[in-house]
Structures are given as structure tokens and as C-alpha cells.
């Protein structure tokens, strides 16, 4: 029943709603009671108690956004505006058939809503759906919407003017109206959803926390829940929230008797204090650099998320009943898992550093004996690119953790000491084996040696003499007696320059910068005539840079198109698609054969491991029987194509084999492109129709050959047979059109002429476009070049980190030029299994220097031009248990790896490829 003093307000609001057309008198059998709540502007809002209606309403599952994730979009924003809609729900109409259900009863009559009232269980979801659809293209770009609250954010005032105009125009077009008194514009910080948002980050709204400040001591469980509800809304600002609140949370349990103790009061006061003094939290910038500090105790889990030294969020929770029995190792690991799950949306695909005060967690990925719970958690950990680091002490205390960060020692070093070191011209360095900036070492500077050498350098002394005579040379004498060009130390010619450049380029502290970076670094301290040119020459001759640096120039070698064939199925290309799932028929690969003229293709399934004789029989039955013997075949250097049997077969048939340049798949670009299309079509078939991929392969071949091909301006089927294939799509057109006798022959010849014309035009376009992105690079016999290799390990190694191998090996002599863009190299005996003709894009010119020591024995590569690493032993065994099978695994140690780089591999695969690792019993 409504209080008597509010009856006048009720009557006034009903009249107001009637005058606006929001409600109408009702004769509905439904009828909910009414009450009043206070709004933000202190006015009263009429609210209907729809609890009975909500209980029988089917819930709308439309997701409401998480408030903490909404703020994550604001990373670099500096200007903000907030728009609050005028009675937002009342701007949405109710369906005619649902109007009677909104009826409510009052002292002044029975009414029903024509617009959406407050209090309906599905109202928030409906309104959120409406707002998201209206602002869909702007969400998370410069607009955040939460029900009827709209936040517009921008990086600059110029951007904000544009963004604000777009939002207001959208509201006008959708006929949604805002309440000006509740809107705020062009602010550098703004209250939004109970928080203060600014360019510095996000903080607690002081107006909201004011209620906490004056909150009386709870007298019942309901009052505790109410307090924890408000405090919990801001728990991301309070470090170890759950641990502090544990005494209060315990009182809310059913089996716990309400007994307000000193511990409860202390926890209550501490939470109030923490909320009132809550820090400003940084917003994630999306630029990586995330760190997590995690800790666990017998009462709860706690963690802190940081980025670039600033706190993003705190998180904590109390232990569940069964977790209280976990050993310490499992609790510490549970804290890490808790943090990764909670902040997964920040951390996925980012490099993360996790600091823990439990040393044994460092070895969680390599320990032999793990329980089922740990196995489950390790599967989750493998989804993240993370590094676990031991941090002594309580890592969950951020101030302590920060004081132990490697930079802390250097940042806290007294300024007087650093100034004294600089005045003494002594450089401060760190040994690589110690932590960053720890154990400072002092070394004498090069200045004394340079000053001494300046006295003996005739060119510098001549310039200084000119300066003393009054000429403007730019050289001056420093108070310490050294010659300077401005503030830069003049370095005499000779070994000292080489020493300076070596220190700036290949020391432990520089690690091979490029010539521009190195010059800009050196010119801040040193000077000599022709310094930029000399630095560039020094870097160009560096043997390590030549072997590991990526070339940032256009690809070498102009495009060399193959000649256009004269007739159908005379000139073919071939390739294999391997690594497919094994089907019930035993197939796990596809042989792709394409006619270079008509672009028609054949897709033949087979099993990897079948002999060349079986493949040859398939070739004779499927290709030669239907299309005749081809004139030439272009393929890569797969062992099946280079085998003696295959070469002998094609020689007897009169077919010429043309192999692509070594490790240059662009030579057979036609097959590569066809394979891409084939794989996409197989994926689509599997998703649409299910079943094994070879169940659909004949349909994929039909679809491919009957689809329009841009380079020939028609479908391959039409080029092959003179007309389109009869199919459900073009049934009538093909069926009614008939070609007989000479007419068919004439049209076929015309089609071939048209195809060759289209192909020539396509080749010309392709060559013109490709050559824009290429450059001419030529070598002469006798020159030395580096050979590009693939810096990855063998294909059998799954789930491991890539090895930091060099990009180029060599240098090797050029023996001769082969064709227009390929060269034959003189390879050492260790590479005798590698074909020695390479496309020019795989080569890099060697810049010699007398300091280079060349050793080809350091690197062994396989026929696929990959760094070859062979397993040297089995370290351990375990079984991976799946739902319906068990997979035996072995832990393998590899050559050229450190012991920590051993990997788990399938035992079956290792036995097949490396049988020597498994000696027979009795040997």
C-alpha cells in the first residue's frame, strides 16, 4: 500500500503518463501493484512490481555486456561525452497482444502500458538489443552503450566533434530522445556506470563511495550482503578483496550463526578504507607487456594484472571447500589458472610474464609425475604464450613486487652516485648472467685512449691547428683536454673507430642494429669525417647480419611466364596435397593434376606411402586413358616425381619432365592456386554435408571444372568439351542447344583461339603487376652468394617453439646461370642431397671481409632446405589419455638443443621415422 503522502504524486504521474499516451485504462485480468523509487536527479519514478508476471515469462537470453569489459575499450581516449536517454524504456512500444499483461492496479484505476515499462524481466535485454543494433557500426570504436547510457569517447577534440555529431544524428534518425540535464559533453573525465573515466584510467566514483563511508555496522545477514554487493562492484580496485572480506562472507553462509566479532569489524573497516582510498587503475592499451603477480594461501587466491608497470586490475577469491585440501603446489598453480581464466580476453595471443613466489612452479611443464587436476590445468596453460618466473617473497603485494622488478634497483640508485660516475666518465654495465641492473660493474672509459690517439692523428691535429688560427672548423677543445665536434668526441682513424663500431654493433649490449639505427646512436657521442658512410660499409660486411637479417628490398627476379600451350591436355602441372585426415578408405592425400590450357583439373585420392608403381598405374588409368599422353609435365621436386621409375615411365611415353627451381613453388603457381581452392571447397563440403573428405572429392572436382575461371573467361568444362556441362543450374539452356558435325569442330577451334588470347592477356597483366614489385638481380659465374633456408625445424616436431636458426647459409660459388633467373651453385658434400639450381630470389650477394671465418660444417640441412635436427635420445615416456583411446608419448632430446628444449612426441611417429631410438630387446 502506498504511503498517504505519496498519493498526490501517484495521481500526478498517472495523469502525466496518460497525457503522454504511455498508458491507457485497462480491463485486463492481469494487475500488478505499484511503488516508487528515487532516480539519480532525486525525482521519484513510478515502478510496477511485476514479480508475478516475470515468474511466468520466458526469459530473453540476449547477453548484457560485462561492465569491466566495456571500460577496456577506452585505452587511449582523452575526451568524453555522456548521453542519457529520457525515460529510455518508454521510447519502445509494447506489442499489441502483450499490452494487457503490463496492467497495474492503483487507487485511481486499472491501467496498462502502451510503451515498455520498468520492471519487466526482459526489458533490459530488449533495450540493449535495440541500442546495439542502432550503434552496431560504432560500438567499441568510439561508442559504448549500456542500456540507456551512451558514452562517446575520442583521442582528440577534433575526433570528438566528428564522433559526437555521428551519435546525435543517429539518435535523431532513430527518433530517440535524450534528457539534456543528464547529459555531459566535452569533458576530460566523466562519471559512467559508477566509475570515473579519464585519460589516466578508471577510478571509483566518489559519490558512490560516499555511501560506503557512512555505512553503519551491519546488524543482520541481509545488511552484510547489501554492503558486500556494493563493495564487490568495485573489487577490481581492492587488492586481496576476498581475503579481506572473508570474515564477512563467512557470516552469509546458511550454517553460520550471526556473530559480529572483532575480526568482522576489522574487515568491515578495512574494506571501507580501501574503497575510499582506491587507486586509479590503468586501462589496457592493447600493446602487450602484460604481467601477472599471483599468490595463494590457505584462505584464498589473489592476483594482480599489470601492463608497462601500471596496475590494470586486482582479483581475488576465497577457496572453495574442496580446495582447502589442495597441497601448496596445487594452490599456487590454481592462482595462476584463476588469473588466466579471469583475464583471458586481455592475455590471449599476448606474451605474458607470470611472477609467483612458489619456486617449483617454474618446472610445471617439465615435471614427470603430475595428477589429473594438474594435467587439466596444463592443457589450459598451453593456450597462452606465458613465462613463469620465480619471485621471492609475497608476490601478491604489488608494492613489494614492484620493488623487486629488475628496473627497481636502477631507478632507486641515488642520483648523486650516477652523477659522480658520469663526471668520472665511467660507464655502468651489467653482466648477462645476472639480473638486469644488478651487481653493477665499473669499467674505465675509452676516453683516455681516444684522447691519447687524438694527439697522434695528423688529420685531427691539422684541423685543430686551423681552429686555433681562427678558421670555423666546428672543432673545439673540451675542458678534459679532448677534441670535440660540438659535444661529440672526435675519434681518430684506425683501430679505435673499428672498436667503437664493433662495440655499437656486435657487442652483448647492441646485438646487430641496422646501419641507420647504429649511425644515429653513435652520432650522439662520437664524430669522424665520413662516419655515416663508414658505418654503412661496416654493417654491410657483417657476416652475422648477412646470414640472419631479412632483406627489405623488392623480390629479386622478374616474372618468367610459361609459354601458352597449343592444345588441350598436352601440357600439365602436378602437385600433392598431403597431411589430410585419414579416411575409412585409407586415403590421406590428393594428387592434383591441371591442364595448363583449359584449366580443367583432376583430383585423385591416394594414401601417402603407396609405391610409385601404384601412382603410375593410377596416372595411366585416369589421365592417359581419358586425355592421351601429355607433351610435358611441370612439377616440384617431390621424391615421387624425381624417382627413377617415374622418370623412366615418362621417357618411354615421350613426355618431358620440367621441374621447378629448388624451393621456389611460384614456378608451379597454377597447382598452388588450385590446391588453395580445393582445400577451401573440401572444408565447405565437410561443414555442409559432413562425412569424410574423399566422399565429396568427385563433387568438388565437378564443381571446380564447371565454375567460371577468370583467366580463360569461361568454365574449364566448356573449354574442354565446347559447351557448358548440363547441371541443375543450367539444365534447359544446355539441353536445348545442340552442335553437330562441322559446326562443333569449328566452334572448338574458335574456343581454343579465344582461350589462348585470354591467357596471353592474363599473363601480360600478371607479369606487369608482378614486375612492379620485383627487381632485376644478376650474378656472374665465380661470384659468391648466400643461400636462403627455412629457419624452422622438421615437420614431425609439433607444439614446440621455433629454433632461432640463420636465414642464410654459405657463401657458395656460382657455377653457371640456368635460364633467365636461376643459378647453379657449388654445394659442399654435406648438402649433396639438395638440388643445386636455385631461383635468384633464394640468393643474397656475399659482401666479403678479411675478418670472416667461414665454416660450412656448423649447419646441417635436409633436402627441404630446413635446419635438420635429429633426435639423440628418449628421456621419458607417458600416455595421453583421450576419451576412447590412449596415445603413447615419448620425451625426445634433440641435437643442437639445450636440455630444457626437449619435446613430447607421438611414439608411433618417432618409431617410424627414427627406429634407431628404440633398440630391439636383447641388443
Distance between the termini: 94 Å
User: What value does the Rg take, in angstroms?
Assistant: 38 Å
Number of extended strands:
38
Approximate helicity band: 25-40%
Largest sheet: 5 strands, mixed
Q: Using the alpha-carbon principal axes, give the shape.
A: extended
- Across the major sheet, the strand order is 15-14-13-16-17
Average the pLDDT over all residues and give the rounded result. 72
Please report which band the strand proportion falls in: under 5%, 5-15%, 15-25%, 25-35%, 35-45% or over 45%: 15-25%
Total of helices: 30
GO molecular function: aspartic-type endopeptidase activity; DNA binding; DNA-directed DNA polymerase activity; endonuclease activity; metal ion binding; RNA-directed DNA polymerase activity
InterPro entries: DNA/RNA_pol_sf, Integrase_cat-core, Integrase_H2C2, Retrovirus_Pol_polyprotein, Rev_trsase/Diguanyl_cyclase, RNaseH-like_sf, RNaseH_sf, RT_dom
GO biological process, one term: DNA recombination
Keywords: Aspartyl protease, DNA integration, DNA recombination, DNA-binding, DNA-directed DNA polymerase, Endonuclease, Hydrolase, Magnesium, Metal-binding, Nuclease, Nucleotidyltransferase, Protease, RNA-directed DNA polymerase, Transferase
Amino acid at each position: 500500500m502506498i504511503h498517504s503522502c505519496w498519493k498526490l504524486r501517484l495521481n500526478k504521474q498517472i495523469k502525466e503518463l496518460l497525457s503522454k499516451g504511455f498508458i491507457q485504462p485497462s480491463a485486463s485480468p492481469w494487475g500488478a501493484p505499484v511503488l516508487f523509487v528515487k532516480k539519480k536527479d532525486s525525482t521519484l519514478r513510478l515502478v510496477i512490481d511485476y514479480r508475478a508476471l516475470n515468474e511466468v515469462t520466458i526469459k530473453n537470453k540476449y547477453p548484457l555486456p560485462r561492465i569491466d569489459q566495456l571500460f577496456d575499450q577506452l585505452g587511449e581516449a582523452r575526451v568524453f561525452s555522456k548521453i542519457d536517454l529520457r525515460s529510455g524504456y518508454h521510447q519502445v512500444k509494447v506489442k499489441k497482444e502483450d499490452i494487457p499483461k503490463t496492467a497495474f492496479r492503483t487507487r485511481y484505476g486499472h491501467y496498462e502500458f502502451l510503451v515498455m515499462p520498468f520492471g519487466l524481466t526482459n526489458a533490459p535485454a530488449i533495450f540493449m538489443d535495440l541500442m546495439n543494433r542502432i550503434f552496431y557500426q560504432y560500438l567499441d570504436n568510439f561508442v559504448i552503450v549500456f542500456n540507456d547510457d551512451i558514452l562517446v569517447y575520442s583521442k582528440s577534440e577534433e575526433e570528438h566533434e566528428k564522433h559526437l555529431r555521428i551519435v546525435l544524428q543517429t539518435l535523431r534518425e532513430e527518433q530517440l530522445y535524450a534528457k539534456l540535464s543528464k547529459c555531459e559533453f566535452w569533458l576530460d573525465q566523466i562519471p559512467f556506470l559508477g566509475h570515473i573515466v579519464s585519460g589516466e584510467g578508471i577510478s571509483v566514483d566518489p559519490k558512490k563511495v560516499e555511501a560506503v563511508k557512512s555505512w553503519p555496522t551491519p546488524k543482520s545477514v541481509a545488511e552484510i550482503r547489501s554492503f558486500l554487493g556494493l563493495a564487490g562492484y568495485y573489487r577490481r580496485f581492492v587488492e586481496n578483496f576476498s581475503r579481506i572480506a572473508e570474515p564477512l562472507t563467512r557470516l552469509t553462509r546458511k550454517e553460520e550463526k550471526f556473530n559480529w566479532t572483532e575480526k568482522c569489524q576489522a574487515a568491515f573497516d578495512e574494506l571501507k578504507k580501501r574503497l575510499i582510498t582506491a587507486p586509479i587503475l590503468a586501462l589496457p592499451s592493447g600493446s602487450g607487456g602484460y604481467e601477472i603477480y599471483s599468490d595463494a594461501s590457505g584462505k584464498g587466491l589473489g592476483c594482480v594484472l599489470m601492463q608497462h608497470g601500471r596496475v590494470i586490475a586486482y582479483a581475488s577469491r576465497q577457496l572453495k571447500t574442496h580446495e582447502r585440501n589442495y597441497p601448496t603446489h596445487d594452490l599456487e598453480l590454481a592462482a595462476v589458472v584463476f588469473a588466466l581464466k579471469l583475464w583471458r580476453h586481455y592475455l590471449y595471443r599476448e606474451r605474458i610474464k607470470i611472477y609467483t613466489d612458489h619456486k617449483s612452479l617454474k618446472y610445471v611443464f617439465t615435471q614427470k609425475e603430475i595428477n589429473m587436476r594438474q594435467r587439466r590445468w596444463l592443457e589450459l596453460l598451453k593456450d597462452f604464450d606465458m613465462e613463469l618466473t620465480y619471485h621471492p617473497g609475497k608476490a601478491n603485494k604489488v608494492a613489494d613486487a614492484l620493488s623487486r622488478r629488475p628496473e627497481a634497483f636502477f631507478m632507486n640508485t641515488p642520483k648523486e652516485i650516477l652523477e659522480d660516475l658520469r663526471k668520472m666518465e665511467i660507464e655502468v654495465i651489467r653482466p648477462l648472467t645476472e639480473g638486469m641492473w644488478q651487481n653493477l660493474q665499473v669499467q674505465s672509459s675509452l676516453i683516455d685512449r681516444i684522447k691519447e690517439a687524438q694527439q697522434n692523428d695528423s688529420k685531427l691535429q691539422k684541423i685543430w691547428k686551423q681552429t686555433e688560427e681562427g678558421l670555423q672548423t666546428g672543432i673545439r677543445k673540451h675542458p678534459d683536454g679532448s677534441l670535440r665536434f660540438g659535444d661529440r668526441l672526435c675519434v681518430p682513424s684506425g683501430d679505435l673507430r673499428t672498436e667503437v663500431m664493433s662495440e655499437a654493433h656486435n657487442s652483448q649490449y647492441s646485438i646487430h642494429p641496422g646501419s641507420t639505427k647504429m649511425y644515429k646512436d653513435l652520432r650522439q657521442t662520437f664524430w669522424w669525417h665520413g662516419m655515416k658512410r663508414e658505418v654503412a660499409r661496416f654493417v654491410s660486411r657483417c657476416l652475422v647480419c648477412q646470414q640472419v637479417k631479412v632483406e627489405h628490398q623488392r623480390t629479386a627476379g622478374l616474372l618468367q611466364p610459361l609459354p601458352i600451350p597449343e592444345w588441350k591436355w598436352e601440357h600439365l602441372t602436378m602437385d600433392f596435397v598431403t597431411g589430410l585426415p585419414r579416411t575409412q578408405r585409407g586415403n590421406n592425400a590428393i594428387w592434383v593434376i591441371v591442364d595448363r590450357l583449359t584449366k580443367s583439373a583432376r583430383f585423385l585420392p591416394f594414401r601417402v606411402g603407396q609405391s610409385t608403381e601404384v601412382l603410375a598405374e593410377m596416372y595411366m588409368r585416369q589421365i592417359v586413358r581419358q586425355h592421351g599422353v601429355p607433351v610435358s609435365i611441370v612439377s616440384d621436386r617431390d621424391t615421387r616425381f624425381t624417382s627413377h621409375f617415374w622418370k623412366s615411365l615418362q621417357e618411354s611415353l615421350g613426355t618431358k619432365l620440367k621441374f621447378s627451381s629448388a624451393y621456389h613453388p611460384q614456378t608451379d603457381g597454377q597447382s598452388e592456386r588450385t590446391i588453395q581452392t580445393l582445400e577451401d571447397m573440401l572444408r565447405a563440403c565437410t561443414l555442409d554435408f559432413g562425412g569424410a573428405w574423399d566422399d565429396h572429392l568427385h563433387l568438388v572436382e565437378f564443381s571446380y571444372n564447371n565454375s567460371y575461371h577468370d583467366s580463360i573467361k569461361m568454365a574449364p568444362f566448356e573449354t574442354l568439351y565446347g559447351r557448358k556441362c548440363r547441371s541443375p543450374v543450367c539444365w534447359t539452356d544446355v539441353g536445348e542447344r545442340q552442335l553437330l558435325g562441322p559446326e562443333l569442330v569449328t566452334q572448338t577451334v574458335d574456343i581454343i583461339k579465344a582461350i589462348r588470347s585470354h591467357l596471353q592477356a592474363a599473363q601480360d597483366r600478371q607479369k606487369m603487376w608482378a614486375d612492379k614489385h620485383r627487381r632485376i638481380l644478376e650474378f656472374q659465374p665465380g661470384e659468391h652468394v648466400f643461400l636462403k633456408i627455412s629457419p624452422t625445424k622438421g615437420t614431425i616436431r609439433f607444439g614446440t617453439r621455433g629454433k632461432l636458426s640463420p636465414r642464410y647459409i654459405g657463401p657458395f660459388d656460382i657455377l653457371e646461370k640456368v635460364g633467365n633467373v636461376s643459378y647453379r651453385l657449388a654445394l659442399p658434400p654435406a648438402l649433396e642431397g639438395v638440388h643445386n639450381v636455385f631461383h635468384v630470389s633464394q640468393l643474397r650477394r656475399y659482401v666479403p671481409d678479411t675478418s670472416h671465418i667461414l665454416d660450412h660444417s656448423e649447419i646441417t640441412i635436409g633436402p627441404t632446405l630446413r635446419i635438420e635436427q635429429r633426435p639423440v635420445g628418449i628421456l621419458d615416456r607417458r600416455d595421453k589419455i583421450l576419451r576412447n583411446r590412449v596415445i603413447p608419448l615419448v620425451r625426445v632430446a634433440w641435437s643442437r638443443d639445450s636440455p630444457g628444449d626437449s619435446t613430447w612426441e607421438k611414439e608411433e611417429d618417432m618409431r617410424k621415422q627414427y627406429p634407431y631410438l628404440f633398440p630391439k630387446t636383447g641388443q
